[in-house]
Amino acid sequence: MTAALYLARFRRLALVVDEGDPRAAWIPTSHNIPFFADGIPGPEILARVREHAGRYGVSPLDGRVSALRKSGREGFRAEVETRDGNCEVQARRVLLATGGIDVEPELPDLPDAVRRGLVRYCPICDGFESRDSRIAVIGHGTRGLGEAAFIARTYSDDVTLLTLGRPLELLPPERALVEQHRIRLVDEPIAGLDVQDGRIAAMRTCGGAELRFDILYSALGLTYRSGLAGALGAERDAAGAVLVDANCQTTVKGLYAVGDVALGLDQIVVGMGHAAVAATHIHNHCAPPIEDEPACIGSASRE
Length: 303
Fold this sequence. Notes:
Elements: H1 2-9, E1 17-18, H2 42-54, E2 61-71, E3 75-82, E4 85-91, E5 94-96, E6 100-102, H3 123-126, E7 135-138, H4 141-154, E8 159-162, H5 172-181, E9 184-186, E10 190-196, E11 199-205, E12 210-211, E13 215-218, E14 222-224, H6 227-231, E15 255-257, H7 268-284, E16 296-300
Parallel strand pairs: 1-2, 5-15, 7-8, 7-13, 8-9
Antiparallel strand pairs: 2-3, 3-4, 4-16, 6-14, 10-11, 11-12
């Protein structure tokens, strides 16, 4: 939506296709976005940017881009699925802001713990509000230990790393990190949970130990929604994040990736910065606007 706002103000014709499952919608309150000193919930962020872009005629299409292919020397064609039928969209440039999906922890009888707000996923966003609390990090390997160490050196001296039954084989430098920050390691599987007042009040291991924490974070990573980029041959890292240059352009000319789907720091203000850079580059490297060119061609029913 930030990119669409910039493009609209550049007097460019842009279509936003929104599948309606933004990661930002899960944020209870973000406190590190400038100008919102008292914090702002993710759904309100989304509503505000829609209203703002709407003043310039941006009206997102509720749908899903199911396929994307090159068209001609510099153009693209996208197959769009909507509730009212399918259409094909032709565009000179494409910007992907498809984000990612947090990998949910495997907790007994508690699916979608992150989406339900029982487990947090971003200590950069709300770790300050969790300071001096008993904090557990659910994770494995280098990623899990890295997040536990980040929290321990920044916000709390009571941090536990839960591997949910996966063995944690530490090299000497990693063992030293654990000892330096006094991180407690629990590698037993979790057998049961107590959920009270909208939070996980206690966890029980298979060995019978009861664990109590004020805050739980998941450090299991993201599943990047980068399939469209990959299908076009854009380079991605081993985890699936799209690689981009300083202008947020992928290795496919004319294809851009911004926000969480691109390799980098997963933060709202970073994604907005990506969008501003990419939209400006698109405007400066695209032919003059042609206001009467069609947005959708080859309209067909979903059947």
